[in-house]
Specification:
Blueprint lengths: L1 H15 L18 E18 L4 E6 L4 E5 L15 E15 L6 E10 L7 E18 L4 E5 L5 E5 L3 H4 L7 E15 L6
Antiparallel strand pairs: 1-2, 1-4, 2-3, 4-9, 5-6, 6-7, 6-9, 7-8
Length: 196
């Protein structure tokens, strides 16, 4: 289960120079443990066409040709590294990885912030987000709709779609699911594309 989450965080780490993926620990799980991984990512890219370092304004040209200004906050300490022609890449991702845990136990939720920035001297980049590890009770199973309803440790109820019928067939009311939910947004400046 954690492998998919680690893979996604590793991709963001490579793209954004963050050290967050090192925090994720692989979960030991039996080969027969049903698992579900769902996720989505949105990516946008723009080219730096002008920089006003005095006002900390960067003018970007998006993939659609639109030109717009971005005011860069003082927390972006590496603005001096940005050059006209560099590319700015932003990505927002959400990943949910769960595994079935037969029998009961305590529900729990552990949340941690994801907050990394580029090192001094590197091109600017940052990743911000949240990682939530949880154990939740399966309150109901709707095999026809392919959904389960779970109750988390904080009393919140969520309805989740399970796309794999083989996994869905093994989930019963009273089981628990153990999972990790990650939502993160990253932005990084990279060198211009090589001209052919």
């Amino acid at each position: 289960m954690k492998t998919a989450v680690k893979t996604t965080l590793l991709a963001l780490t490579l793209a954004f120079g963050a050290a967050h993926a090192a925090d994720a620990k692989p979960a030991a799980q039996a080969a027969e443990t049903p698992a579900v991984v769902m996720g989505d990512a949105v990516r946008a890219e723009a080219e730096v066409v002008a920089i006003n370092k005095k006002t900390r304004t960067v003018t970007l040209k998006g993939e659609d040709g639109n030109v717009f200004d971005v005011i860069v906050g003082k927390e972006a300490k590496n603005l001096a590294q940005v050059k006209v022609g560099d590319r700015v890449i932003a990505e927002h991702m959400e990943v949910l990885a769960m595994e079935l845990k037969k029998g009961g136990g305590l529900r729990e939720t552990v949340e941690k912030d994801i907050n990394e920035t580029a090192k001094p001297g590197q091109k600017p980049g940052a990743i911000r987000g949240r990682e939530i590890d949880f154990v939740a009770d399966v309150k109901s199973v709707d095999a026809k709709a392919g959904t389960i309803t779970i109750l988390g440790a904080k009393g919140r109820v969520f309805k989740l779609k399970v796309r794999d019928p083989a996994v869905m067939a093994q989930i019963k009311e009273g089981d628990q699911v153990k999972g990790t939910y990650v939502v993160a947004t990253g932005i990084v400046v990279v060198a211009p594309k090589a001209k052919k």
